[in-house]
Please model this.
Amino acid sequence: MNAAFDLSVDNVVFGFDGEQLQVLLIRQGLPGVDMAPDRFHMAVPGDLVFPEEGLDQAAHRILSNLTSLDGIYLKQFRAFGAPDRVFEEKDREWLTRIRPHPERRVVTIGYYSLVAMADYTPRPSSFASRAEWCPLSDLPRLAFDHNDIVKAGLLQLREDVARESVIFELLPEKFTLGQLQRLHEIILDKDLDKRNFRKNVKRMEGVVPLDEKQEGVLHKPAQLYTYVRPQ
Amino acid sequence: MNAAFDLSVDNVVFGFDGEQLQVLLIRQGLPGVDMAPDRFHMAVPGDLVFPEEGLDQAAHRILSNLTSLDGIYLKQFRAFGAPDRVFEEKDREWLTRIRPHPERRVVTIGYYSLVAMADYTPRPSSFASRAEWCPLSDLPRLAFDHNDIVKAGLLQLREDVARESVIFELLPEKFTLGQLQRLHEIILDKDLDKRNFRKNVKRMEGVVPLDEKQEGVLHKPAQLYTYVRPQ
Model:
């Protein structure tokens, strides 16, 4: 009745390449061991929480540890605690190799993060043998219940976009209204009317036109905008 | 580095009495022991998750166990895992008396629930020596970080009311538009214009006028409405 739990955090990091949403994945490996690339699964970056550490603190530490990504927006969105979260042989073997108590039930706290892909090149470390962006539309079978975690993170992102300014974390510093509309369409998974969208943008606090236009494009260069977080 | 965690759920149950929001609290006691009422704190109903149990399942079991409240709306909203969640002497003593591993760090998953107060009379059991409604505006110092958990539950309820139909869980089967407006005002913590509110109600899916009016009131009896969840 009173077996203990291990506690982890898992970070769903969304990036935007101007065309589609991507998710940052790591290849689960063993530190310092060279092995067949498909021996273990790909996963979202996550690990165990230390005994004296807060959850948000752990999320930042672990993400930095595995992917060298620091100081980004992170939002807790859900705990995942199904008793059968670990069910595949590959996952069990990896746990056995890397965890001091591989038999323990692990409850994980899901965080999501948003990154402008232009600002970050994946750099794996610790037990991550690789780190790379993967299009949301083309996810492989991930470790544990990580496919569910990514799906839940996306649903939360959709809800939050409807009422918060989180979306600007995904854009470069200077962006066009076309990019802003495309990003809304991708996250909300529906087409938006261009005229209505531009009307709505006028009401969005913090979207500021710059005295600059796009450079190096073949079509007519579009006006650039930036986002200034309201104080 | 690898101490284990205990995992609990805590349920913030909101009730509405027609005038204000209330929260369901239990008095922490020891099963079968009669003791001074202020020996331990009041708390929201929560307890440890069993080793083989899902989180939602645990939330329902524990709420039923402590308060005899069954089959209600429960929504996970946040994990609370600050390393210093247990800091008061009273709380430590209670844990020592009731938990097999009182020294273990406990991470708790917060759920909130909504109940029409007319439908439920608190019935304590297990280690709850009492169970009672307490106005949100008049909460005592609660056990552990439960004051923070209630506050966070209220914030989540506010967000959800803005986009979901959860609010109807708090109303009796038949209600007036005055009651519906008052409940919105309390949750959103602002006054609403009566005419605009009634216009908005017309757009709310599922709010259906009944062929009935209030009975037993001194003022002019108001039209009654009910809520039919859209399929």
Notes: Chain A touches chain B at residues 1-7, 48-55, 76, 78-79, 81-83, 100-101, 104-105, 107, 109, 159, 162-163 (CB under 8 Å). The first strand of chain A starts at residue 5 and ends at 16. Residues 146-161 of chain A form the longest helix (16 residues).
